[in-house]
Amino acid sequence: MNCNMDKKKLVIYDSIEKIPNNSSNNILISWNKYFISKDNHISLLKYIDENKEEIRNKYLVWINNISKYDIKGKSISEHLQLTNDSSTWWMSNITGKCNNYNSLYINDLVKLLALIKIINSLKVSCIDIKSSNKDLINIIKQFSYKNHIDFEYKYTKASKNKSLFKTIYNSFPLIIQSLIWLIYQIIIYHKFIGLGLSNWESIKSNNTFVTYFLHSKPLNSFRNSFQTTYWGDLPQMLIKQGNPTRWIHINSNINGSPNIKNFYLSLINLNQSNISNQAHVSLYSFMSIKIIARSLRQWLKIVFRLSNLPMNIYFPSFYGLNVWKFFKKDWCESTIGRNSLRNILYFNLFKEAFSYIYYPNKCFYIFENQAWEYGMLKAWNSHVKGDTIANAHSTIRFWDLRYYNHSFIEDKNSYPTPTKILVNGKLAKKSMIDFGYPIGIVQEVEALRYNYLSDLAPFIRNYKKIKKIKLLVLGDYSKNLNNHQMLLLNELTDQLSVPIDITIKSHPSNQIKYSDYPKIKFMLSKEPLVNLLKINNIAFASSGTSAALDIYYYGIPLILSSPCNTLNFSPLLGLDDIQYVSSTTELSNSIKKIINSNFNRKNNKSILNIDAKLNNWYNLILQ
Q: What gap in Å lies between CA 261 and CA 38, rounded to an integer?
């Protein structure tokens, strides 16, 4: 039903383009832009930040209850039972809630909750949406009809760029895709079978580490030492102290991961190195025909079991709305697709790895609520008697929903809980405690990833005497956020009375080119962040950049570009002295405010625990 002219109309713009002036006094909702709402023009992203606890909790409570949802006399987690005490449900993309990389539709559902809250408060009688997202149009149409609100829409087709290989691969049924994936894994990882197992079996160690293999050092550097971004100087400290350790490495497709050849050669170098008290293996070192066959058999049992379960009919409603189309891809990938097969394979590989450990041990692992973590914890608890210690190695952002799991707290019988969760400072600890994690399991330790900051002298500078602005710009992994941030630099020089030099450090996965922004005068740098912090006096980053934490700790004035398209993933969300800008004028005004004030903040030691001695870590390992 179309909207009548005399009705109270709410118009939703799902784009980042400029919204036309509100000549009809309609209520305008910007789905993807962040600004201070005024004159009947509401930024949904800003509204979410202002009501973030209520909206986040509403989504998390709903997602937690899905596991208990009854279908044909069984809960969803029971339908996905893997063994007597484990379920692939807890390894699914849906429970993983990775809303900043993979499951981006979650952000639209969070926005939907905010929209419904706004609509209920305004009592509108007509909704008009302009969007290229068919699923979003349909869900708002469904809500409108259910609540007797007139509805109209305008669909704009979005361009999609897909590689030919992906198009062909995705045309196969999911079961065929999964088998192709498994064959590919066997081909590229067969040479890892048995690699490092002699050291793994013979070493006498009370501490096991599970980590991603990530490095930026030359391969030959692994002959004498082992260093990794995730664990900082801890491996070297353990070597010096004479503490033997086991290391299981997972090669992931995350940015910075080595290719298969480099991964293989690095592990060979580590096992042939002068490091006598460390054993390094790949998870695929434990692969065998027996484990592959067992994984295939378990996966096929779940596939056949689900063949009689039409989830398009049974999938739980989202506060009365049918959201199956949003979750369909994640559900299928996590139950009959390659993610399901991979998770089951990893579970069995971990069981095999831990079968070599015959005495009490502690297991330290990267804490991100990834699918393999559940399988690893289940495998550890079934084979080894010892503590499991989760290392929240990076920032814990308010809207990074991976870290917030009601089942983790309330349903310990189904979901294994680590003995301790290690956090790198008071800011991260507060985030965990505020959500509901028991105080007894959250423990502060030194921030291994950020310990390089201990070598930096405190940042002290009189900004009123600055004759030239040296602006450090940190790029983002997201092309949309990156472009949004770069466009704010357009004409910035014209709006400042003080000369400015702009240095840009691109994100590794999203390299900025001079040719992309010919109107902006800037210099690209590949220098480490620690060096750039010393020579620049103001920093400008996107809202989701994790490096904002480094800058804030060091004390350089920090300006963040406002969120665009997505939720506010800033690790500093909620702090009063963080400035967000959404236009070139706002950016120039923020810079002027800094240089006209007596800005002189020393490094903020309250957010990160920085201590090169790593006493907390060492004491924990020796316990």
A: 56
* Calpha distance 19→15 (Å, rounded): 9
Q: Which amino acid is at 622?
A: L
- Encoding tokens for residue 30? 């910007």
The predicted structure's pLDDT at residue 166: 76
Q: At residue 102, what are phi and psi to the nearest 5 degrees?
A: -105, -60
Contacts of 593 (CB under 8 A, 6+ apart): none
Distance from C-alpha of 299 to C-alpha of 182, rounded to nearest angstrom: 12
Structure tokens at 375: 């399988």
User: How many Cβ atoms are within 10 Å of 164's Cβ, its own excluded?
Assistant: 7
Question: If you average pLDDT over residues 303-322, what whole number do you get?
Answer: 91
Question: Tokens 């909620």 label which residue?
Answer: 574
Interval 15-51: pLDDT, tens: 766 677 665 778 999 999 888 777 788 999 999 999 9
Q: Is the pLDDT of residue 601 over 70?
A: no
Contact assessment for residue 75 and residue 67, using Cβ atoms and an 8 Å cutoff? yes
Which residue has 């068919």 as its token pair?
134
CB neighbour class for 385 (10 Å; exposed up to 12, middle 13-18, buried from 19): exposed
The alpha helices in 83-215, defined as continuous H runs, are: 93-96, 105-122, 134-146, 164-170, 174-189, 197-202
Q: Does position 214 have pLDDT exceeding 80, yes or no?
A: no
> Residue 541: in which H helix or E strand, if any?
strand 538-542
Instruction: Say how far residue 518 (Cα) sits from the centre of its chain.
Output: 32
The CB-side HSE value for 47 (13 A sphere, CA atoms) comes to 24
Helices (H), 11-50: 44-50
Helix-strand-coil split of the chain, %, nearest 5: 45, 15, 40
Please state, in angstroms and rounded to a whole number, the distance separating the CA atoms of residues 372 and 334. 12
Tokens of 272: 């042939």
Identify the band that residue 355 occupies on the pLDDT scale cut at 50, 70 and 90. Answer: very high
How far lies 386's CA from each of 208, 382, 524, in Å?
10, 11, 48
- Burial letters 454-484, b for 16+ CB under 10 A, else e: eebeebeeebeebeebbbbbbbbbbeebbbb
Mean pLDDT of 149-163: 80
Instruction: Give residue for tokens 């480490």.
Output: 528
Cβ atoms of 538 and 471 within 8 Å: the answer is yes
Q: At what angle do helices 338-354 and 174-189 cross, to 10 degrees?
A: 40
Phi-psi region of 616 (alpha: psi -120 to 50; beta: other; left: phi over 0): alpha
| Per-chain mean pLDDT for the chain | 87
* Closest C-alpha among 2, 20, 50, 26 to residue 124: 26
Instruction: Classify residue 91 by its DSSP letter.
Output: G
- Going 587 to 593 to 595 to 600, the CA torsion angle's sign is negative
**DSSP codes joined into one string, 225-274:** ---BTTTBTHHHHHHHTT--EEEEEE--SSTTPPPHHHHHHHHHHHHTSS
Angle at 476 between CA 472 and CA 479, to 5 degrees: 130
H or E element that contains 226: none
Q: Is the pLDDT of residue 254 over 60?
A: no
Question: Mind spelling out the 3-state secondary structure of 335-388?
Answer: HCCHHHHHHHHHHHHHHHHHCCCCCCCEEEEECCCCHHHHHHHHHHHHHCCCCE
Q: State pLDDT tens for residues 365-424.
A: 999 999 999 999 999 998 887 999 999 998 899 999 999 887 666 665 667 889 999 999
